Amino acid sequence: IRNHHGHLIPLNSSIPANSKHPYVLEVAKIFQHCPKPRTIPMTVINKTMKTRLQTIERRIQRLEDLLPQVKLRRNEKLTQQEIECLNQKLRFLHQRMQANSHTWKGVLIRAPLW
Fold it and tell me: 70-108: string of b/e by CB count within 10 Å (b at 16+)?
């Protein structure tokens, strides 16, 4: 026997009469487990979906607001002339390092294992 909340009521002789909220009688085999169906209420699902949608909308709005600034920042980073100047300096340094390359002509000797 279950009450209107779905809680089990022990069987004894002192069960009060209840006309407002009738009892539910479940018939089951001995030691049969009757799990209560567990479902997530739709209000919780709706609330989480709304919050996710709002966060996504906020992120999209923020990206749309920052898009012109991103283009300006990218243009300000390096111009084509600066890149060419850096490439020339890098080539010059590479040539200097190749011209003055020092190699070690020694030999590593292992210690004898006596």
Answer: eeeeeeeeeeeeeeeeeeeeeeeeeeeeeeeeeeeeeee
The CA distance from 26 to 1, in Å, is 6
- Is the pTM value of this prediction over 0.85? no
The neighbouring-strand residues paired with 8 are 2
Place of tokens 């279950």: 2
Pick the more confident residue, 79 or 50.
Answer: 50
The DSSP output letter for 1 is -
- Average pLDDT in the 80-88 region? 86
Q: How far apart are CA 47 and CA 54, in angstroms?
A: 11
